[in-house]
């Protein structure tokens, strides 16, 4: 009971931040270094937006109307909001408290599961991402082999309906690890053989679902097969979670056999088959860029270099970070990729427009271009550099959002307690 009381006390002690209201009048951000997100940088530029949409970007923008809000940024940097793919944000609050975990369903094949309806807009973790310029996230289910569909959410909402940015954008397939080295399966069988059998089971499910959907009439409705319809119509993408080359070859095979739009999530060894991925039009979400390599004989800094190798090969890729509690650092991990072969603007694209393209939202966001949503972060310095980045303002669809969070409040509390001002 004591532990429960302490947990409830901490829950109610969190900061209370209400979502911002709709944009009421035009906003002009002037005298800024504007990082468009497509490689272009505009010095001493102005960006304007109204009714949630960007209306002008450049150095020769028309004068602001009398009712506009004009902010002289005095050389601060303006960026597109960072986008986090493959996130369990809002699905887990405390990893040690089972009642706050809603990221997985029972069973192995669950294409009809929708992560969006479980997304918790009151999660206190969300605010820690926003204060680092992360404004959108792909909320992804886990568990089983076919875990369900993900959706993209914007991070300033009253409920999951308000948060929805792109609904059910992809189905997630977790390929069982193709272990090597004689490791045994859970029932004493050979682990690689068990994994291959599971993959063949999924392949059979896909074939049955495709045959079912080609029938004009059904004697009975199969909800799991029905949930596959958007995938086969290419209204959804198949996100295949895997790291090893042999696993990625399975993903490529699925793309060819079923004519699917496939993205690999993980892709630790994707640098080894970058040319094949490019040829097969397979995109990659690189997860855990701050990690050790999978294979013992790989270079110790291979995870840092993989992004640049995919960029050189022409593979569409973006960056992500497993674990909701560390996804706030995604921009800084892009900065690491810039130190290992990418340019700074290529690294920015890896967490903005590239992610938007992979998630199917590039017509709405990802760059600071006229007509797109005003998802904007303002930083005193380089947003990809932990030392210089301080986010001073952020806007989601033109609405200026509150950048406070529990960690900031604790910092202010103890600075005051110990007289450290």
Automatic annotation (TrEMBL):
Family annotation (InterPro entries): Amidohydro-rel, Metal-dep_hydrolase_composite, Metal_Hydrolase, Metallo-dep_Hydrolase
Short name of any one Pfam family annotated for the protein: Amidohydro_1
GO molecular function terms noted in the UniProt entry: hydrolase activity, acting on carbon-nitrogen (but not peptide) bonds
Domain Amidohydrolase-related: 338-399
This protein's name: Imidazolonepropionase
Native source organism of the sequence: Chitinophaga terrae
């Amino acid at each position: 009971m004591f532990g429960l009381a302490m947990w409830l006390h901490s829950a109610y002690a969190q900061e209370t931040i209400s979502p911002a209201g709709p944009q009421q009048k035009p906003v002009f951000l002037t005298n800024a270094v504007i990082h468009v997100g497509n490689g272009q940088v505009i010095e001493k530029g102005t960006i304007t937006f109204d009714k949630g949409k960007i209306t002008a970007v450049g150095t020769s923008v028309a004068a602001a109307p009398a009712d506009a809000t004009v902010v002289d940024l005095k050389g601060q940097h303006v960026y597109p909001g960072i986008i986090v793919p493959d996130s369990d944000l809002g699905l887990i609050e405390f990893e040690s408290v089972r009642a706050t975990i809603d990221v997985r369903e029972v069973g192995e094949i669950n294409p009809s599961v929708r992560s969006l309806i479980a997304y918790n807009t009151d999660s206190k973790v969300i605010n820690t991402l926003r204060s680092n310029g992360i404004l959108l996230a792909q909320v992804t289910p886990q568990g089983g082999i076919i875990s369900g569909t993900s959706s993209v959410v914007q991070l300033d909402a009253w409920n999951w309906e308000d948060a929805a940015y792109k609904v059910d954008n992809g189905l997630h397939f977790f390929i069982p690890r193709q272990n090597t080295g004689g490791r045994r399966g859970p029932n004493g069988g050979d682990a690689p053989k068990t994994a291959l059998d599971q993959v063949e089971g999924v392949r059979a499910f896909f074939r049955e679902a495709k045959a079912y959907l080609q029938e004009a009439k059904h004697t009975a409705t199969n909800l799991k097969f029905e949930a596959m319809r958007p995938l086969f119509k290419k209204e959804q993408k198949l996100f295949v979670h895997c790291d090893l080359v042999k696993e990625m070859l399975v993903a490529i095979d699925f793309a060819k056999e079923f004519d699917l739009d496939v993205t690999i999530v993980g892709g630790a060894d994707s640098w080894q088959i970058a040319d094949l991925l490019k040829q097969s039009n397979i995109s990659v979400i690189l997860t855990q860029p701050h990690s050790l390599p999978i294979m013992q004989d790989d270079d110790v800094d291979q995870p840092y270099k993989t992004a640049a190798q995919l960029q050189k090969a022409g593979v569409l890729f973006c960056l992500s970070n497993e674990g909701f509690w560390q996804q706030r650092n995604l921009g800084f991990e892009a900065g690491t990729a810039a130190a290992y072969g990418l340019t700074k603007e290529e690294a920015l694209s890896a967490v903005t427009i590239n992610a938007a393209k992979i998630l199917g939202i590039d017509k709405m966001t990802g760059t600071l271009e006229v007509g797109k949503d005003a998802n904007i972060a303002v930083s005193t310095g380089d947003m990809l550099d932990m030392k210089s980045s301080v986010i001073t303002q952020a806007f989601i669809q033109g609405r200026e959002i509150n950048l406070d969070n529990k960690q900031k409040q604790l910092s202010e509390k103890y600075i005051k307690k110990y007289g450290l001002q």
